[in-house]
Amino acid sequence: MNPVTDKIAIEAASLGLGYPGSTQPVLEGVDLSVAKGEFLTILGPSGCGKSTLLRAIADLLPPLSGRLSVLGKPAAEARRQREVGFVFQEATLLPWRTVRENVCLPLQVGKSRVAKSVQSRADHWLELVGLADLSDRYPNQLSGGQRQRVSIARALQCEPDILLMDEPFGALDEITRDRLNDELLAIWRRTHTTILFVTHSITEAIYLGGRVLVLAANPGRCQALLDLTSLKDANGICRRESAQAQETAAQLRQLLRDGGA
Ligand SMILES: Nc1ncnc2c1ncn2[C@@H]1O[C@H](COP(=O)(O)OP(=O)(O)O)[C@@H](O)[C@H]1O
Ligand SMILES: [Mg+2]
Questions:
Q1: Superfamily of domain 1-77+194-261
Q2: What ligand has the least distance to the C-alpha of 50?
Q3: CA angle 87, 172, 101 (to 5 degrees)
Q4: Would you tell me which of 59, 82, 238, 251 could form a disulfide with 75, CB atoms 3.0–4.6 Å apart?
Q5: What is the pLDDT of residue 171?
Q6: Ligand 1 centre from 181 Cα, in Å?
Q7: CA 26–ligand 1 middle distance (angstroms)
Q8: Nearest CA to ligand 1 atom 19
Q9: Average pLDDT estimate for 27-34
Q10: For ligand 1, is residue 49 a contact (CB within 6 Å)?
């Protein structure tokens, strides 16, 4: 094993991404290295390619050019080994299954009955996201925030090394979002999962991330990568209202303005 590459979760070099049939690539020349256990937040104007980047890492889209490796191997292999989990903006739950049954789903495909061990693992993750009491409910009996928690529990059920989150809290009210941010940080600290988290909220990007990647549009590219560790206290908590956090927010706002043109 190589001690350096062994610590890297995601590595992109001159990566170009785009969709079949369109002449212009969405993202070009992406160079990015994400360490194992890192929490990276991603900001960028609408349509610049944030979701596209996550899709490529999840092997839902093949690279057009350059190199992408996920846990030291091609993205397809990491996906086959269920090392990458995905949480989307809208919780994609099956309405005819209870909360617990939805969480069991990734480990149940192809089997008619859910093993007891899978169920107890589902209960463990539901407890961690604060839904232990609601595990027998159906998705339409939950609030938006609760549905998103189910999605997170379902992604964690496979214990992925990498968790990709695409604006997972974008549709939630601010109080719920703040609470889920704290829960997510607690889960991240406990599980050491590498997290890539796309958001439109500068505040959320600063609060959650150890680093923040800013993507720009036209052409889609990496514009800046900021280290946020100096904003966090010894417990890794960021005081949103601190002068330094405000300054970083202003800097990010300017970067987003520059990159949106
Ligand atoms: N399935 C697709 N086929 C063709 N073009 C797409 C597809 N999905 C997204 N795009 C285009 O790729 C660009 C980047 O999209 P996306 O990654 O979703 O942006 P973001 O998540 O940053 O808002 C946009 O111009 C969008 O229109
Ligand atoms: Mg998107």
A1: P-loop containing nucleotide triphosphate hydrolases (3.40.50.300)
A2: 1
A3: 45
A4: 59
A5: 83
A6: 26
A7: 7
A8: 47
A9: 97
A10: yes
